## 1
Amino acid sequence: MATTLAKAAEGTARTTAHAARIEHVSKSFSGPAGSQLVLDDISLDVAPGEFVTLLGASGCGKSTLLNLVAGLDRPTAGTIETPGGRPALMFQEHALFPWLTAGKNIELALRLRGVAKADRKTEAERLLELVRLGGAHGKRVHELSGGMRQRVALARALAQDSRLLLMDEPFAALDAITRDVLHGELTRIWEAANMSGSAAGGLSVLFVTHNVREAVRLAQRVVLLSSRPGRVAKEWTVDIPQPRRIEDADVAELSLEITEHLRGEIRRHGQH
């Protein structure tokens, strides 16, 4: 199958029915033992303004799929479309430049986006306020806690002004309390971005995690990938109203159901 990676012009976002479209995507890597199929015939749409979590066991290809959507790699087969332009990507590690202040890290993203120099500091300060780090523009990275660094990383991702935010386990290294706080902050920012009812569809999020409760706490839809190779095994629509808490009974009930399916996929593929 011929492989293409189609990205339409940003102006078409106002007429599209999806923020990302993944159609029959497969990905193989070559190694000493030959070609290894990591993703197999993945098809998935993310609607404008939708929050989707990708869930699966370690090694199932979640991060590989996110890298393909981000344009950091190309699929072996199939097509990926992100009609709103290049997605913003947030990693598990904050990946901030330690020689720059928090504000200057954000200003760098603004410069790459083409924002005028005279406007960058004001916009960086606005984004820091958005992630509840007002006054931190001049702070060095080493002066920030882990949670604060991830807030700056989120502000930097938002500085790219993309309609699609890709998040690769961004809170996995944080302690439980900080992670819980940032779940709430991310939900607040996502909801605020979608309250305007813009024709472009607001902000869509594709969030990778192996934490079932995190997936249910955040998402409108949970997509479970199988292991070796990754395929879409099952999807759940999450009808629990926001704000949610990770300890809520409804979150726990759905998490238990999804966990049973995840365990079944792990057993089926002989993982431990």
Note: The domain at 17-38+48-87+164-272 is CATH 3.40.50.300 (Rossmann fold).
## 2
Amino acid sequence: MTPPAPTTAPATAATTTPPRVRAVRLGPRSVAALALATAVGVIAFGWPFLAPPTSQLSAHAQDAPWLFAGLLILLVAVVAATISESDLGPKAVAMLGVLAATGAALRPIGAGTAGIEPMFFLLVLSGRVLGPGFGFALGSVTMFASALLTGGVGPWLPFQMLSMGWFAMGAGLLPGPVLLRGRAELLLLAGYGFLASLAYGTVMNLAGWPFMGAGASGISFHPGASVAANLARFVAYCLATSLGWDLGRALCTVVLTCALGPAVLRALRRATRRAAFETPVTFDGPGA
């Protein structure tokens, strides 16, 4: 009597990698609105290097940033309204409110002293877990809420909201959102947090640099100068005014990401699984 042939155990669901769950699914309108806001934002931040010295925009160097600030307010509102139409259900709204309130509460802890701003690491981890669309909305709302708490409302706020939206959205676009875990993911997030924190400070310098008068002639914006000359002035401005703060912010983000990242990532992923964002909310009738 011959023994029965061995059978192969069927593959179970545990061996397959579950797809990534996004709190906000970006549709064509949301992507178009984000692209428009990004394009206008690039112009709003980089116009000193994009406009020729003889243009009327350079002639009104003190007025242009204010005009762009008003335009960015409208664009951020358009993006927020568009994202709200992209399956931003009550669960995602609740998650957005909790994380935005937490980030806004973290900002006054360091008050920007020596670049200690713990809210940045939370936005990196949140954007990583919840996706780029949620990350953009979270970054913008968090910066707006924190400005209300700290009294930082001014013409610079739209620039901060857009920059922070880019900051958190970039974390959601990093590679390996499903397969990459453990130390490799922490290194990726820490590296992104370091570079993005420096980039945030550099971009925000562009919002205030054209306001400098002729008193600091070596580093101030000169409307009639060439692009190369103004770029050299801007680099000198960053080195003289904000590099120390930006490095402090970048190092603080790296330290908090490495120290608290594993616990926060687990908590965010557990909350995302339990929230089941992609499951529609239904209400059973009486007696069901």
Note: Confidence is low (pLDDT under 50) at residues 6-17.
## 3
Amino acid sequence: MTASSSTPSRERAAVADACRRLGAEGLLIGTAGNVSVRVDDRVAITATGAVLAALTPDQVTVVDLDGKHIEGSYEPTSELELHLGVYRRYGTGAVVHTHAPHATAVSCVLDELPCIHYQLLALGGTVRVAPYATFGTPELAGSVLTALEGRSAALMANHGAVTHAVTLDQAVEHALLLEWACGVYQRAASMGTPRFLDEQQQLAVIEAAIARNYGTTRPMPPAQEENRGSR
């Protein structure tokens, strides 16, 4: 989904699709969690009380960056101010908030998730845990915004997780990555004290990823293709 090609109906459908995918992946249960996408000064966001794993586009509300209603028949999620705060401060394109089980479990124990695997560098490295506050409050929104500084993800103490990205697909992928990393940490901690990557090791990974254009597919050079075919 891109900002240039979106319309309110497409935004609402995209949010519903993302929620159903997150539900299928086990990151959403019942009405717990919320998802939004921003295009220009519009934000399409899940309605309060909706069952997210079965969300339909008509259960997505469109508001402006001040929270004023533009489209939709239902009130937006109680975490609206959290989403709007992320958009205002970080200029991002999409926000995903889940009560994913591994992420929530880790948020009940740690003050931050250490960089246990180099893939966490895609989220900025260590993932901070925002202090607990009641859902839907300015206190919670403020602490999460602080925890997100320089990061694409944050955990919420005894609550869940938040990720953001330029696109909705990327924000969903960030949520899946965070949940995977929290699961890895839990398994490692059950066997002993987990090791984690220090700053020098993290920097080496970043340098290697840049040098190798890590994470992108590349066609085999023609000469090598011919050599492989002749064997």
Note: Helices lie at 8-24, 80-90, 101-107, 138-147, 168-191, 199-212, 222-229.
## 4
Amino acid sequence: MITQLLTVAADATPKNQFGFFEAMEQGGAIAWSIFGVLVIMSVGSFYILITKLLEQQKVFKEFNDVRGPFWRANSLKEGASKLGKNSAWRQLVDDALAADAQHGKMTDQTEAHDWLHGSLARSEAAINAKLAGGLPFLASVGATSPFVGLLGTVIGIYRALINIGLAGSASIDKVAGPVGEALIMTAIGLLVAVPAVLAYNWLSARNKRLAGMLSGFSTDLLANLSSNGQVKPAVPAAAAKPAAAAKTAPITKPAAGAPAAKPKA
């Protein structure tokens, strides 16, 4: 008896027919296609955010080696060996050394200096372009994802109007599904756009900091090459190793009964 009552009560409980999946199912293939595009945009945005953040963090970390061990080396070649092979700073040094090797083949000193400066500028621009890779995708997602969601909104409202026309009345059961679909698409479009815009602005600001650091390092390299290694930027002193504790001879006590040493006059 109790089981029958529970079964009847469960059947009498109203089911939610206006959830997310129900609204998407009413939207059909178009709604699911728009939702899929927004999901791809969101996943791509977070992938670029994580990968570019790790790449930037690596360049920032390697700058500590540039400020210390690199400039304390006797030559640029020796200093370059202390940098990572895939380092952005190592690329600048290698390009500078390659340009300097061709520098002596030019008879005009002005042209030679311009060649060296131009080579460093090209190398610096190539590094900045690599660091900026993927940011246009974030900008595109931030600019277009609200409109993609708006497309789903327009389609949902259009379906709601069709249902109203067919039913002859604007009853809630006829318009709740399409309107819910429209609101869901609007919300998803905004949820995709906001993180993409924030990530783009944050990564761009960090890239500007890196561009300034690369420009300063390039200028120091040019000055060092032009002065035959005489001009170097001020670098922090190397951390001094703690000095070993001085060993002191143990103080021996006089043996029992032995006369104490008399002080010399």
Note: Helices lie at 2-12, 20-70, 76-80, 88-103, 109-131, 135-167, 172-226.
